[in-house]
Automatic annotation (TrEMBL):
Gene3D superfamilies: Hexapeptide repeat proteins. Keywords: Transferase. The lineage of its organism: Bacteria, Pseudomonadati, Bacteroidota, Cytophagia, Cytophagales. InterPro entries: Hexapep, Transf_Hexapept/Carb_Anhydrase, Trimer_LpxA-like_sf. It comes from the Bacteria. Pfam families: Hexapep. It comes from Rufibacter glacialis. GO terms for molecular function: transferase activity. Residues 176-198 are annotated as: Disordered. The keyword Transferase applies. This is Transferase hexapeptide repeat family protein. PANTHER family: DYNACTIN SUBUNIT P25, GAMMA CARBONIC ANHYDRASE-LIKE 1, MITOCHONDRIAL-RELATED.
Length: 198
C-alpha cells in the first residue's frame, strides 16, 4: 500500500521489498535491499522519512514525526518488531529492539543496541556503540566487537530477505495437513544468549 500525499510520492528502490500489508505514505525514500514487514506504517505526511540501504523495518513498526522534522534510518539500521521511531535519527548498523520507542529529535549513534521495550526520551543523544535499556532508558555498557558482529550477521540475513521475497513470496491457499516430507528450516543464526552459551 503506497500512497501519494500532498504531491509527495514515495521513492522506493527496485531491490527493496515492501510487504503488501505495509503502508508507505508521502515524503519517503527507501534504499536498496530494504525489507519492510507486514503491518509497518511509514508515514511521511508531515515530514520526511529516509531509509538508507540495507535497513529493515519489521512487522508492526511505526515511523512518523511532528510536522517539519525528519526520521532518518542510516545504513543497516535494524528496527525490531513493533518498534516506534518518532522523529529520530538512527545511526549506522544500530539494532532497535522489539517494541522499543525512540522519541523526537533523539540521535542514536552508530553501532548502538537499544533493548526490547526500551523508551528513549525526546532530545537525547546516545553515543556510538552504547547498549541502551529500560524505561526510561539508561546506557548500561558499550557494544563489544562480539556483540556488533552478532548484530551485523542478523542484519545481513534481513538484507537477503527482500530478494527471497521477490523470488518466492506469493498468495496461496492453505494446505489442510502438513506433508510428511516437509523439510525443516535451517538453524543458521542464534540468539545472543545462545551465542554466549547461556
Amino acid at each position: 500500500m503506497i500512497y501519494e500525499f500532498n504531491g509527495y510520492i514515495p521513492v522506493v528502490h527496485e531491490s527493496a521489498f515492501l510487504h503488501p500489508q505495509a503502508t508507505v505514505t508521502g515524503n519517503v525514500t527507501i534504499g536498496k535491499n530494504v525489507y519492510v514487514g507486514p503491518g509497518a506504517a511509514i508515514r511521511g505526511d508531515w515530514g520526511e522519512i529516509i531509509i538508507e540501504d540495507n535497513c529493515n523495518v519489521q512487522e508492526n513498526c511505526t515511523l512518523h514525526m511532528f510536522p517539519g522534522t525528519t526520521v532518518h534510518l542510516k545504513e543497516m539500521a535494524h528496527i525490531g518488531h513493533g518498534a516506534i521511531i518518532h522523529g529520530a535519527t538512527i545511526g549506522r548498523n544500530v539494532l532497535v529492539g522489539m517494541n522499543a520507542v525512540v522519541m523526537d529529535r533523539v540521535e542514536i549513534g552508530d553501532e548502538c543496541v537499544v533493548g526490547a521495550l526500551c523508551f528513549v526520551r525526546a532530545d537525547e543523544k546516545i553515543p556510538p556503540r552504547s547498549v541502551v535499556v529500560g524505561n526510561p532508558h539508561k546506557i548500561v555498557k558499550q557494544v563489544t566487537d562480539e556483540m556488533l558482529a552478532w548484530k551485523t550477521e542478523g542484519t545481513q540475513i534481513y538484507m537477503q530477505l527482500p530478494a527471497d521475497c521477490h523470488a518466492s513470496l506469493k498468495p496461496c491457499e492453505p494446505l489442510r495437513e502438513a506433508p510428511e516430507n516437509r523439510k525443516k528450516q535451517a538453524s543458521h543464526y542464534q540468539t545472543w544468549n545462545e551465542r554466549k552459551g547461556e
